[in-house]
Amino acid sequence: MKSLIDNIVALEKEADGMIEEARLEAKKIKLAAEGSLTRFKDESDRDRLDRLASLRAEFDRKYQEALKAEEDKLADGLKAIDDIPETMVRQQIDRILNRFREW
Q1: Mind spelling out the 3-state secondary structure of the chain?
Q2: Which domain holds residue 29?
Q3: What's the pLDDT score for residue 1?
Q4: Predicted structure pTM score
Q5: How many structural domains does the chain have?
Q6: What is the mean pLDDT of each run of 10 residues along the chain (103 residues)?
């Protein structure tokens, strides 16, 4: 009978040891998974920031091109106004004033 009890106690100790090993292995797996998740998040954040920086640079480039084009159109328009002969400007002013006088 004593040997049966000794066998049961030995089996319980062996089972306790196996459970403890399983717990340790589960902790290792959990730590590895957390590490992988952290690395994935970090990589994802870096990729997102890189994409945002790229999009921002592209937007800035296109904005500068559009701004330059509009500035060029404005400069052309101002030059066209400056190129109007003074006599023509004076004639138009006189026509406008005459219209007001006719009222």
Answers
A1: CHHHHHHHHHHHHHHHHHHHHHHHHHHHHHHHHHHHHHHHHHHHHHHHHHHHHHHHHHHHHHHHHHHHHHHHHHHHHHHHHHCCCHHHHHHHHHHHHHHHHHC
A2: 2-102
A3: 67
A4: 0.54
A5: 1
A6: 84 93 97 96 96 98 98 96 93 92 84
